[in-house]
């Protein structure tokens, strides 16, 4: 093989090697940019996850407070219901007593119904 052909062949390989190296550099640059974008997105995701975790903790605390308040309200309403029941029973007892007195007065003839008769 002549020196000229050998040099031509070497030059072809070198040119192809240079093309491949350029492609490798371009790929490397793309990978570097992608890596940087991934790093930024990872940081944004981390920040968002921390914010969501804090929000969930806050909501859980609010739900716990509402549950406690609900229990307290339920107990208070139960107390009110019991008081109202006691009042109803007292009113019924007083009504029975008044009706008993009225009946007794009518039977004895000394009540207001005798004056009307």
Question: Would you write up a description of this structure?
Answer:
The chain is mostly helical and 117 residues long. The chain has one domain. Helices cover 95% and strands 0% of the residues. The protein has 2 helices and no strands. The longest helix is centred in the middle third of the chain and has 106 residues. The radius of gyration is 48 Å and the shape is rod-shaped. The mean pLDDT is 89.
Give the helices and strands, then pairings.
Elements: H1 3-108, H2 112-116
What's this model, at a glance?
With 117 residues, the protein is mostly helical. It has one domain (3-109). The protein has helices at 3-108, 112-116.
Low-confidence stretches: none
The helix/strand class is: mainly alpha
- Output the radius of gyration: 48 Å
- Principal-axes geometry comes out as rod-shaped
Notable features of this structure?
single chain; 117 residues; mainly alpha; 2 helices
């Amino acid at each position: 093989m002549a020196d000229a052909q050998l040099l031509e062949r070497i030059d072809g390989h070198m040119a192809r090697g240079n093309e491949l190296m350029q492609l490798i550099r371009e790929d490397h640059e793309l990978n570097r940019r992608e890596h940087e974008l991934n790093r930024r997105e990872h940081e944004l995701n981390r920040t968002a996850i921390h914010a969501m975790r804090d929000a969930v903790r806050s909501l859980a605390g609010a739900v716990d407070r509402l549950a406690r308040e609900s229990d307290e309200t339920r107990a208070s309403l139960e107390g009110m219901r019991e008081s109202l029941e006691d009042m109803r029973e007292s009113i019924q007892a007083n009504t029975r007593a008044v009706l008993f007195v009225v009946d007794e007065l009518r039977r004895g003839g000394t009540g207001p119904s005798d004056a009307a008769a």
